[in-house]
Amino acid sequence: MILMQQVCVLGATGSIGISTLDVIERHSDRYQTFALAAYSNAEKLFSLCQKHRPRYAVLAAEWAATDFQARLNASDLDTELLVGASALVSVAEHEEVDIVMAAIVGAAGLQPNLAAIKKGKKVLLANKESLVMSGALFMNEARKSGATLLPIDSEHNAIYQALPDNYRCGQRVGADIKRLLLTASGGPFRGFSLEQLNLVTPEQACAHPNWSMGPKISVDSASLMNKGLELIEACWLFDVQSSRVDVHIHPQSIVHSMVEYTDGSVIAQLGQPDMRTPIAYGLAWPERIDAGVSSLDLFTHNRLDFEAPDVERFPCLTLAKEAFDAGGSACTVLNAANEVAVEAFLKGNISFVSIPDIIREVLDVSDIVALNHIDDVLVADQAARRAAASALTQLS
Ligand code: NAD
Ligand code: MG
User: Fold this and answer.
1) What pLDDT, on a 0 to 100 scale, did the predictor assign at position 302?
2) Cβ-based neighbour number of residue 322 at 10 Å
3) Mean pLDDT (the chain, rounded)
4) Which of 39, 68, 362, 391 has the most CB atoms at less than 10 Å from its CB?
5) Are residues 161 and 304 in the same domain?
6) How far apart are CA 126 and CA 39, in angstroms?
């Protein structure tokens, strides 16, 4: 008999949230949506509630609550609306919740993700920023509580699948593992010159060739900061030094990542570039379920190319690696500065090539301190955001 699992979807209205609900809907005998949470899109969240009938709906933005409540009052739904950032934490740590899909974008995911981890939930981690900004503290909480942490980022999910069956995130990978090979599509600007990069627009940056994603991660993919954040994510999840993680540009996004063993074997996970595969893997682990993803036809994808990343044109990858190696709050600062710079680029306030300039400047002026407590993370995050805002002002 399959036990019904209660799922809390944080970031339900986003790209990962919608894909998660698609998989859940295919398996209504196994999963029930306990809570759906989003920032402010009352209309979209309400329509998801009509379909999935969760116990709770959460809107982090208090100003969006009236609209949602009016829709709720006019409906026959039993869903209860909770409001504010603290409500994200309440649903993530709720005793009836078995699985938390951590799919809020950016630093806002940190507190609810940590709450779920501390309660020992099965946490499906899409929100890489929370791990990047809090690193060892995040992983220590997972080890302490015995939470099941499963990577949803396709690369880390691929690596997890290529590691031995008894491996669990947070353990140091064995000495029999030589390298983790992280693949990257290279994004929409892979072949662009520096002159061309200077002129690219937010619309171009958001038009990813292989994946359909939210705006922030799309810009990160275009700048290779996404791969930088993923390198840091891999170091924490699999407890390896950055020198054991190699980035390979693989434009077709079919090989999602690889593990190289000391005997020369390289084990890869392949599949369509569709996030429902890692999401279904995470939901059902250690079993497998249908994700609604079509078979991979290798005759149509008859070429798999690999090349080294160009860190001259895409310096964000190096900035991320250096931040990880520096330790302490450096990754917190990197992440915060990147979030501010990406938002400014999306609003049309800075050019694409200014993103790494802002991050570098913020790293240069920030004190890098030890992170002993989650409050240290929040303080470093806020200070870096202020430094980034002032770097933006100087730029304009
Ligand atoms: P998205 O922009 O499509 O959705 C973001 C979600 O977060 C929305 O539901 C939004 O309402 C919610 N949100 C934003 N700010 C919030 C706040 N302050 N409080 C509460 N909720 C808030 O983003 P996405 O593409 O779904 O990505 C989500 C996360 O998953 C990101 O961390 C991203 O890096 C990661 N991820 C995404 C993909 C992908 O294919 N989309 C792949 C790997 C990892
Ligand atoms: Mg990824």
Assistant:
1) 87
2) 15
3) 97
4) 362
5) yes
6) 16
What six digits make up the tokens of 306?
């690999």
Summarize pLDDT for 334-372 with one digit per residue, the tens.
999 999 999 999 999 999 999 999 999 999 999 999 999
What is the C-alpha separation between 323 and 319, in angstroms, rounded? 6
Which residues are CB-neighbours of 237 under 8 A, at least 6 positions away?
Answer: 131, 139, 149, 151, 156, 160, 169, 170
The answer on 304 and 208 residing in a single domain is yes
Is the same domain home to 143 and 205? no
Rounded Cα distance between 355 and 347, Å, is 13
**Tens digit of pLDDT for each residue in 251-269?**
999 999 999 999 999 999 9
Q: What is the CA radius of gyration of the chain?
A: 20
User: Rounded to whole angstroms, how far apart are CA atoms 34 and 388?
Assistant: 38
Ligand 1, atom 2, residue with closest C-alpha: 214
Measured distance between the N- and C-terminal CA atoms of the chain, rounded to whole angstroms: 62
What is the tally of structural domains in the chain?
3
CA 236 to chain centre: 14
Domain ranges, residue 388: 327-396
Do 270 and 296 meet the contact criterion of CB atoms below 8 Å apart? yes
Q: pTM for the whole thing?
A: 0.98
- Give the CATH number for residue 127: 3.40.50.720
Mean pLDDT for the stretch of residues 169-190: 97
> 5: pLDDT confidence band, cut at 50, 70 and 90?
very high
Q: How far is the CA of 122 from the centre of ligand 2 (A)?
A: 20
Q: Which two tokens stand for residue 209?
A: 């060739």
| Token representation of residue 57 | 């709906």
**Residue 153 Cα to ligand 2 middle (Å):** 4
Residues 167 and 229 in one domain: yes
Q: Which helix (H) or strand (E) holds 245?
A: strand 245-249
From the CA of 106, how far away is ligand 1's center (Å)?
7
Residue owning the nearest CA to atom 16 of ligand 1: 39
Q: Residue 1: pLDDT above 80?
A: no
Residues with Cβ within 8 Å of 394's Cβ and at least 6 positions away in sequence, in order, are: none
- CATH of residue 366's domain is 1.10.1740.10
